[in-house]
Amino acid sequence: MKRRAVSLAVGAALIGAVLGGGTTAAEPPERDLDKADELQLWADAEVDRPDERVAVELLLDGTRPDAAGDAARAVRSLGGRVTGAIPGHLVQASVPADTLDALRQADGVVSVRRPLRQDLPLGGASGPFLQLITGDQVGHTNADAWHAAGHTGAGVKIGIVDGFRGTTWQAAVASGDLPEVDAAHTMCQLAGDPCDIWATGIAHGVAVAEIVHEVAPDAELYLATALTAADLMAAVDWFIANGVTVVNRSLGAELDGPGDGTGPLGAVADQAVAAGISWFNSAGNEAGRDGRQGNYYRAPFTDTDGDGWHEFVNPYGPLPAGGPFEDLAMDCGGNLLSSLRWSDWDDLAGATDYDLYVFSTPGGNRYHAGFDTDAALAHPDLVTAAFAEQGPGGAPPLERLGGTCSGGTVYLAIHRYAANNGTTGDTLEIMAEADLETWSNPYSAGYPIVDSANPGVFGIGSVAADHTIAYYSSEGPTNDGRIKPDFTARSGVHTVGLPTFNGTSASAPAAAGLAALVLGAGHASSPAELREWLTNHAAVDRGACGPDTVYGYGELVLPDPEAPADPADPHLACAARFEPLAPTRVFDSRPGEPAPGPKGKLAHERTVDVQVAGVGGVADEAGAVVLNVTVTEPAAAGYVTVYPSGAARPLASAVNVVEAEQTRAATVTVPLGSDGRVTLFTKSAAHLIVDVAGYYVSTEGAPVAGGRFVAATPTRLFDTRPSEPGAGPKGLIDARQHVDVDVLGRAGVPSTDVAAVVVNLTGTEAVVPGYLTVFPAGGAVPLASTVNLGAPGATAANLTIVPLGTGGRISVYSSHGAHALADVVGYITSDTAAVDTAGLFVPLTPTRVFDTRSASSIPAGGTITRQVAGIAGVPAAATAVVLSVAGVDSKLGYLTMWDTGVPRPLASTVNFTHQPLDTRANGAMLRLGSGGRLDVYSKYGGHVLADVTGYFLW
Question: How far apart are CA 663 and CA 661, in angstroms?
Answer without folding.
Answer: 7
